[in-house]
Amino acid sequence: MFESVLAFLERIINPIMESGGYAAVVGLMALESACLPVPSELVMPFAGMLSQKGLMNFHLASIAGALGCAVGSAGAYWVGASGGRALLVKYGKYVLIREKELAHADEWFAKYGQWAAFLARFLPIIRTFISLPAGIHRVRFWPFLGLSFAGSLPWCYGLAAVGMYFQEYRPQIREYFHIVDYAIVGSAVVAVAWWIWRKRRARTQPA
Prior knowledge:
Mean pLDDT: 82
Distance between the termini: 43 Å
Low-confidence stretches: none
Order of helices and strands: HHHHHHHHHH
Shape: globular
Strand content: under 5%
Helix content: over 70%
């Protein structure tokens, strides 16, 4: 299962990166930081895999990823600055940002100030939408952009390194792919059970 999914993703992502090169890495990572569903956890490992094959330079791919994060963050920042809080409250659900997440971001900026833009880059979920509330809070733009790039750089390097080493040792670890299959199936069962439990609990609770 895992190997089939991996092969499917390779058929989709690799041609984009091979034809577009570093510009494709910048573009895909910009989409993620602009709150669109293009996960860096897929993009950068594949860039690392291509670097292991000699089709990309590892360092340039990682820097391109961080640059893409900065570009996408700039766009999201100005959306937040222009539309304000009302825009996110009204349309945030379409990019999976609810008032709960917005309140969480408010706490981050109240506690860390502009450094929230740097720290958020190390967290898988909040890193995607932190730029919108940064615009709402009118965090100074250029320091925000620099901190976003600086925080994204180790994230991109780390994910690219995962892909690079995975590709290097892929023949040796292929025999363990079945363990990942079991983990995927187990996680799916737990997720479905949790969803059913939440639905039933919601029905039994008084309005």
